[in-house]
Design a protein that fits this description.
This protein has 332 residues and is of the alpha+beta class. It contains 11 helices and 15 strands.
């Protein structure tokens, strides 16, 4: 169910002067009017963009909140993707964190900073991508902020509803649990390697880097099936499993024979002189979900067992420590 945006306010003469081609000529409020015009909201949005704050219903009485910041040149490159793809990427990266808690997304709040010379079409394209993803998952883009900066930066805050269920935490893994995964991994790392070499194909790898495909519904299904812990793979499978290991006080072993290393992924790696398995184990940005389940649990599709939880600490691969970086760290 959708309805027109509530709470539109009169922002004065600057709001209607949207005749220029860049942010400096259109102005902050003119751009806001452009990106919010015609926006629709789900029933959970009681008051959308246009007032000092939005109002979102929370029947559960609890709100799951997560925020992600994406910076041009660090998390994406505006010369490698369209504005709409960048907007979709920003929304999906944040939504995967909500899914990893076992929650249903309800609302997004977006803050964008950009140089004054940025074409208006870039902002409206990013907004279109954000709004499209929000609509696909039944959530609303309910507000945000804009400011001037030297670098295009997008910050997306997502709110979610647990619908009466307990959140699935990183700290719940138990000795004897099975480790399982939902979604693809390694493909975004392949796309980054391809684009970094100046190529634009194979398309499947490039597309994976530009716009992830997190299995959002799988997070809710995992929670319903009794997942004891869960996390989204944003920095690398081994790196993110390290967070579960530390929080739960357990060891985790990944079995490479159980990992789906697609033959096409192997072809791309071979062509670039890279290791496809390394992409799968340490590559980020695919936003797959990994979770632990009690032994004997019937896993819902598309979850697949890839390892086990034991006593001790740390993450191993086929029973041995992994040599080399285990994933992305912004300050290393």
């Amino acid at each position: 169910m959708t309805r027109p945006v509530a709470g539109r306010s009169d922002r004065g003469p600057a709001a209607s002067d949207a005749t220029g081609t860049d942010l400096g000529s259109v102005g902050e409020f003119g751009v806001i009017d452009l990106v919010t015009a015609g926006m629709t909201q789900p029933a959970s949005t009681l008051l959308g963009p246009g007032d000092d704050a939005a109002v979102v219903s929370s029947p559960d009485g609890r709100v799951v909140v997560s925020v992600d910041m994406l910076v041009d040149g660090v998390h994406f490159r505006s010369d490698w993707a369209t504005p709409e793809q960048i907007g979709r990427r920003a929304a999906l990266a944040s939504l995967s964190d909500i899914a990893a808690m076992g929650a249903v997304p309800t609302a997004l709040v977006v803050a964008i900073s950009a140089p004054a010379a940025t074409p208006v079409d870039v902002l409206t394209g990013i907004a279109a991508g954000l709004q499209a993803v929000a609509a696909e998952v039944g959530a609303g883009v309910v507000g945000g902020d804009m400011t001037r900066s030297e670098q295009l930066t997008i910050s997306v805050t997502v709110m979610g509803d647990l619908q009466g269920a307990a959140p699935v935490l990183r700290s719940g893994a138990k000795v004897g649990d099975n480790l399982a995964i939902a979604g693809r991994i390694g493909w975004a790392a392949a796309g980054l390697a391809v684009l970094s070499r100046g190529f634009r194909s194979p398309a499947v790898a490039v597309a994976a880097y530009r716009v992830p495909e997190p299995p959002l519904a799988a997070g809710i299904a995992a929670a319903a099936a009794g997942a004891t812990s869960m996390i989204d793979v944003s920095d690398g499978l081994l790196a993110d499993l390290g967070h579960i290991s530390t929080a739960s006080g357990v060891s985790i072993d990944v079995r490479t024979i159980a990992l789906d290393v697609n033959p096409r992924l192997k072809e791309v790696a071979s062509a670039l002189g890279k290791d496809a398995l390394a992409w799968v184990l340490t590559g980020g940005d695919d936003h797959a979900l990994v979770a632990t389940f009690p032994a004997g649990t019937t896993l819902p599709a598309p979850w697949q067992v890839i390892g086990s939880v034991g006593a001790g600490s740390g993450v191993t691969v086929d029973g041995r420590p992994y040599e080399g970086p285990t994933g992305w760290d912004h300050y290393r």
